[in-house]
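To: structure desk
From: M.T.
Subject: fold request, one chain
Message: Could you run this one when you get a chance? Sequence is below, nothing fancy, just the single chain.
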Amino acid sequence: MPLKKLLLESPKLKSKEIFKAIEIAIPSTAIEAAILKTKVKEKRHRGLPSQLVVCLIIAMSLWSKDSMRDVLKNLIDCLNEVGLKTGKYWKIPCKAAISQARQRLGAGVMTQLFHQLVKPMATVETVGAFLKGLRIIAIDGTCLDIPDSDENARVFGRPGSRLGTRAAFPKARLVILLEAGTHLIFDALICPYKIGERVRALRLLRSVTQEMLLMWDRGLHSYAMVEATVSKGCDYLGRIPSNVKFTNEIQQKDGSYLSLIYPPGKFRKKGFPPIKIRVVEYKVENLEKPEAETRYRLITSLLDPKKFPAKLLACEYHQRWEVENTIDELKLHLLERKTHIRSQRPKELVQEIYGLLDLLQNYFYVIVEVWLFGTAKFNS
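Reply: Done. Structure tokens follow.
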């Protein structure tokens, strides 16, 4: 999309003008509420007000290969016609001014905005969103390459490498909770690379509720995960590693069996009891290579084999892969650049990641269409 140069006559932009295009996707009232709640609203007039900086942080992933100044040009391009009518133009701030504005804003606004807006949205008509009344959600984690700055490396760390070498990029770990039917990430946590997914996954259970079915992969299996999920009243369906064994306590007619998962030492000392589970075993055949068949073992809190037959659970477990597809969309197709994140400082990096998550939730798709096909269509 061609960029239009804007010259300075008046740096003042009213909130109504700033949000004219963006409020279709994210209400300006929500952004202003997040700013007020985090107490970062500026006390004097600035050329880059907080509301505009929030929009810039979200938009910087729309134009992931452009400089921050070019992103700002694209963002306010829709205001160009307004400027022509009023005879007032706006000079694009320099790179240092944009960086200072982001530092003043901090990371709290973007996290507050994310949690304020993003909630499960699937309805009963949404394909693959429910299993007999239970909303299907999935949990998983990934790592994002971040710029090789001393501050990022100190806060987030690097992956291990051979003696005498160093990993090319520091990495930030992102753990997400996703609604399978819509690919909507409705909770997320960012942490240093060395903090494992299991630790952060337990914290994400703050957002699960009753009438949900949580799916996870074998890397997240633990007694703590099962106990924390059950304590929230949420059902689960998780894969277990091959080295974990369960005794067959009661055999079911559908081939599954009931068993118990026992607490490890630290939980046992605190008085945590064994938890009744149901184990489902099945094999996935490879028609081209029969010897390469994969064996799956799942545990679940859905103990009724009549309402939830083993075959049904085995067929539905593929919904967990929706979280893998979403991670692929986020890292490869949406950004389309080698280094996933561009920010050189940790606080700005957290800003950018939460802005990216806001972007991923389809909030901006209508605005992208408007900008691709021209502002006249929007302004008419």
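Reply (cont.): The radius of gyration is 24 Å. Let me know if you need anything else for the meeting.
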